[in-house]
Write a structure and sequence with these properties.
0% strand, transmembrane, mainly alpha, 21 helices, MFS_spinster-like, Growth Hormone, Chain: A, MFS_dom, SPNS3 protein, globular, transmembrane transporter activity, 2 domains
Length: 489
């Protein structure tokens, strides 16, 4: 366990890592560039890990047609794959959040990477008779990846103060859409090259092993918490004794229930988490079903023939993966830059940016669904704009959390946000879309036209949820100034 009382003395002597180093609190003998280089290496490793994390997340959607045909699945059972993954991910997140606030974060990250890499590799050898084992393996991978998504952002929060933190978080969150897009492209590419979709699950474990090695070589074993640094800076040189150490130790002893109770009173945290939940619902549904929806639209238009051969055409996954990468990078950068500029003229800029982007995204997604049967190019374009405006929010929402929640509750807050956003968002949306599609198909004679119509109708719910998410961010703007001042106090 990371004992804050024991770490206080090294911090006073200037031997700390992380945020204190980033602010220049260091020994005179240490090079001025050394802390910046160390912090940069840590961020590079964390970004690379985030890339692999989300590549693995989107392997299944990238080869969805192959998996659906291999296990002979309906739309509902197909959507269950991503739902089980996300359910396990979200249930594990609060556990890792608590562990990240009280134990060594580097060890937890390493254990999580090792676990999900091993399970992903094992799942590549599952045959068509063992669909339930394949579903179980995806759930176990979700547990492993929860450790990374929960803890990595808080390490960045420890390393950088608010001005630089937004920029670094933007870089970190760029790798969510980049990793997602690379997951589509890796899965589709490996299936095309080898003729066997199982090979898609044998690449990311090798990359995960590399992340594990870099993590233990480059990331410090202990990274000082910003809360500890702030306490130290407020201590007079004559009263650095047992009384202050005892105060620090007591501050670290808050229970999980006490932390949750405090967060439940934070209106900005609650409403922004619900806005993120709406984002997660939409992105989960899009990430799972868009390549298959595009394929069915092309079949209806006569652009491509129905998939009857052993390995299906994965060109839509490749294109959608490229779109996800491009719109993700552009969206995250645009969101961070808009937030940086607009904060100077408006104190509530962050939630207003999120609300506006959600409304525009919902309109674009609805338009994409409406034109899908007649113009596939327009469908691609409107889906791209829908993803672009969704991506605007990733770094901004996280930054909202980091300045309305006190630092020593941030891992718990992030884990709770992950739990809520996935429980009510993307854990159920892929399965819900599949169930609605099944229900619509059951009303008439099966045909390619009907399979397209069923998915089109079920997808329409995403536009409604997007508008709802915009409303949640508007409510966030009503409370954000008060909650930020409270966190600063």
């Amino acid at each position: 366990q990371e004992d804050t009382g024991l770490q206080l003395q090294p911090l006073l002597e200037g031997q700390n890592y992380g945020a204190a180093a980033a602010k220049g609190t260091q020994c005179p003998s240490v090079s001025r560039n050394s802390p910046a280089v160390k912090n940069g290496l840590v961020v590079a490793v964390l970004c690379f890990g985030n890339l692999i994390n989300f590549m693995d997340w989107f392997l299944v959607p990238g080869i969805l047609m192959d998996i659906q045909k291999y296990f002979r699945l309906s739309d509902g059972r197909t959507g269950l794959l991503q739902t089980v993954f996300t359910m396990c991910y979200m249930l594990a997140a609060p556990i890792f959040g608590y562990l990240g606030d009280h134990y060594n974060r580097k060890v937890i990250l390493g254990a999580g990477i090792f676990f999900w890499s091993g399970v992903t590799l094992g799942s590549s050898f599952i045959t068509e008779s063992y669909y339930r084992i394949f579903v179980l393996s995806r759930g176990l991978v979700g547990i492993g990846t929860a450790s990374y998504s929960t803890i990595a952002p808080t390490i960045i929060a420890d390393l950088f103060e608010e001005g630089k933190r937004t920029t670094v978080l933007s870089i970190f969150y760029i790798f969510i859409p980049v990793g997602s897009g690379c997951g589509y492209m890796l899965a589709a590419g490996m299936a095309k090259i080898t003729g066997d979709w199982h090979w898609a699950f044998r690449v990311t474990p090798c990359m995960g092993s590399l992340v594990l090695v870099l993590l233990f070589l480059l990331v410090p074993h202990r990274i000082q918490r910003r809360t500890e640094k702030h306490r130290v800076l407020s201590i007079s040189g004559t009263i650095r004794g047992a009384a202050e150490k005892s105060g620090v130790h007591r501050a670290g002893k808050t229970t999980w229930c006490q932390d949750v109770g405090s967060l439940a009173k934070n209106c900005s945290f609650i409403w922004s988490s619900l806005g993120l939940t709406a984002m997660a619902f939409v992105t989960g549904a899009l990430g799972m079903w868009v390549p298959l929806f595009l394929y069915r639209a092309q079949v209806v238009q006569g652009i491509v023939p129905p998939c009857l051969q052993e390995s299906c055409n994965s060109s839509n996954s490749l294109i959608f993966g490229g779109i996800t990468i491009g719109t993700g990078i552009l969206g995250v950068i645009a969101g961070a830059e808009a937030a940086r500029r607009l904060r100077k003229i408006h104190n509530k800029a962050d939630p207003l940016i999120c609300a506006t982007s959600m409304f525009i995204s919902a309109l674009c997604l609805y338009t994409a669904l409406m034109v899908a049967q007649t113009n596939i190019l327009s469908t691609f374009i409107f889906f791209a704009f829908g993803e672009l405006f969704l991506s605007v929010n990733w770094a901004v929402v996280t930054d909202i959390l980091l300045y309305v929640v006190t630092p020593r509750r941030q891992s718990t807050a992030i884990s709770l946000q992950i739990l809520v956003s996935h429980l009510l968002g993307d854990s159920g949306s892929p399965y819900l879309i599949g169930l609605i599609s099944n229900a619509v198909q059951a009303r008439s004679t099966p045909s390619f036209q009907q399979s397209f119509r069923s998915l089109q109708c079920s997808f329409a719910i995403c536009a409604f949820v997007g508008v709802l998410g915009g409303g949640f961010f508007l409510l966030t703007s009503l409370y954000i100034m008060e909650d930020r001042k409270e966190a600063e106090r």
